[in-house]
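W.,

You were right to be curious about this one. When I first looked at the sequence I had no strong expectations either way, so I just let the prediction run and decided to look at it fresh. Below is the sequence, 151 residues in total, followed by the output.
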Amino acid sequence: MTLRRATRSDVPALAGLFGADPVSAARGDSGEGDLTDYEQAFAAVDADPRHLLVVACEGDDGPVVGTLQLSFLPGLARRGAWRGQIEAVQVAASRRGRGVGGWMIGWAVAECRRRGCGLVQLTSAVERVDAHRFYERLGFTATHVGFKLTF
């Protein structure tokens, strides 16, 4: 397995990962058709040095089998500690249970430490019970209740 920075050519594979996930699909990620929205979002993330979108691949040139976005957020709370925010974690269904997700999260945590973050945080949809157990096994604790306002 290889973990690397995502490129624009990965956008179709990333859209496919989101579209194959029932929770993401229910929110409008079809993974098919016009990819303009994904391409524009990719360009914005890729252009911002405080955001990093990575893909897990089988080997150097193999297919994309996982992804996550890592964002570095400054803040005044916790005496000005930086936070690492993990978002949009996806692993292809055919690769789940093989350590890909744990390996990606381990890398993300190490990258946050390397960049001087004081903590790493993530959110997970309430219906993702298996994901909650996964994150708890990796040492994360459910410390907050989150709220969203969707437009």
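Here's what jumped out at me. The CA atoms of residues 74 and 82 lie 5 Å apart. And, maybe more interesting for your project: The helical segments are 11-20, 22-26, 36-47, 77-80, 100-114, 129-137.

Coffee later to discuss?

I.
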